[in-house]
Design brief:
The protein has 287 residues and is an alpha/beta fold. The protein has one domain: Aldolase class I (TIM Barrel), CATH 3.20.20.70. It is 48% helix and 17% strand. The protein has eleven helices and eleven strands. The chain has an eight-stranded parallel β-barrel, surrounded by ten helices. Strands 7-6-9 form a three-stranded mixed β-sheet, with no helix packed on it. The longest helix is centred in the C-terminal third of the chain and has 23 residues. The protein is globular and about 55 Å long. The two termini are 12 Å apart. Bound molecules: 1,3-dihydroxyacetonephosphate. The site of 1,3-dihydroxyacetonephosphate (13P) has 15 residues, from β3, β11 and α10. InterPro entries: Aldolase_TIM, Class_II_FBP_aldolase, FBA_II. Its cofactor is Zn(2+). Keywords: Metal-binding, Zinc. It holds the Pfam family F_bP_aldolase.
């Protein structure tokens, strides 16, 4: 079916006390892995790309491939740009089939952040797109963004409420102790803070940095109101492992169909597991 907006998917998941898994993809094989895995699970799904991936693969290529992939299956698929700091890049994405966007002004002070997010939101709403914003600072590494432990800042509930009102965003990414990339120890999520934010904010909440978070914590976060879960590193790791293992078996391997085929299968397996963890399997039939 044609690409859909991510907001109705997220709202349906929230109503069902589930979350939509949003997978960061990098190339054709990872797109196929997500589409095939989600299709087999009958799960609505969000495919997303960071600006680094857009630079690597090209907005036009990603937009065209994901559009075609969505057309070929009968589950709802949304295409979302993740952590984008640039108004212009967001416009470029919207013109290339993207159906929702995240504007990231976390590097700016509050007033500048609000001004940027509001500008994007007004433009996006005018063309029927939804916007994810972020308040607080999620730690870790993603693309060329690096936020160390000292700079990471948990979301303040009153600030979250104010930010949503000031900007008009449709979904809110919050910092409650997760970080992008893998963790050294076990991440401790601030569930009390999550519940406080959920009680004060009207829009659905998004959890970034889900890779390496124990399943029980993901389930608790969903129970307390998280309705979209972002997963990147836990797809990258099995992909790299599958490629390495192909070359370990045959150091002269030179057929991309073999090593990329193995990578696609490894990624698809994790996609299916994460969808079940989020409880979004079967939801495609309720939309
Ligand atoms: P992970 O790499 O920790 O899964 O984070 C993904 C993410 O939040 C993308 O925005």
């Amino acid at each position: 079916m044609p690409l859909v907006s991510s907001l109705p998917l997220i709202k349906k998941a929230k109503e069902k006390k589930a979350a939509i898994a949003a997978f960061n993809i990098h190339n054709l094989e990872t797109i196929q892995a997500v589409i095939e895995g989600a299709s087999e699970e009958r799960a609505p799904v969000i495919i997303q790309t960071t600006p680094g991936t857009l630079r690597h693969a090209g907005i036009e290529y990603i937009g065209a491939i994901v559009k075609k992939a969505a057309d070929m299956v009968d589950i709802p698929v949304a295409l979302h740009v993740d952590h984008c700091p640039s108004f212009d890049t967001i416009v470029h994405c919207i013109r290339n089939h993207y159906t929702s966007v995240m504007i990231d002004g976390a590097h700016l002070d509050y007033e500048e952040n609000v001004a940027l997010v509001k500008r994007v939101t007004e433009m996006a709403h005018a063309v029927g797109m939804q916007v994810e914003g972020e308040i607080g600072k999620i730690g870790g590494v993603e693309d060329d963004m690096f936020v160390n432990e000292d700079e990471a800042a948990l979301t303040v509930p009153s600030e979250a409420k104010q930010f949503v009102e000031d900007t008009g965003i449709d979904t809110l990414a919050i910092a409650i102790g997760t970080a992008h990339g893998m963790y050294k120890g076990e991440p401790k999520l601030d569930f009390e803070r999550l519940s406080e934010i959920e009680a004060m904010v009207d829009v659905p909440l998004v959890l970034h940095g889900a890779s390496g978070v124990p399943d029980a914590s993901i389930k608790e976060a969903i129970k307390r109101g998280i309705a979209k879960i972002n997963i990147a590193t836990e797809l990258k790791n099995p992909m790299a492992k599958a490629i390495v293992s192909t070359f370990e078996k045959n150091k002269d391997e030179n057929d991309p169909r073999n090593y990329m085929g193995a990578a696609r299968e490894a990624v698809k397996k994790v996609v299916k597991e994460k969808i079940r963890l989020c409880g979004s399997n079967g939801l495609a039939d309720e939309l």
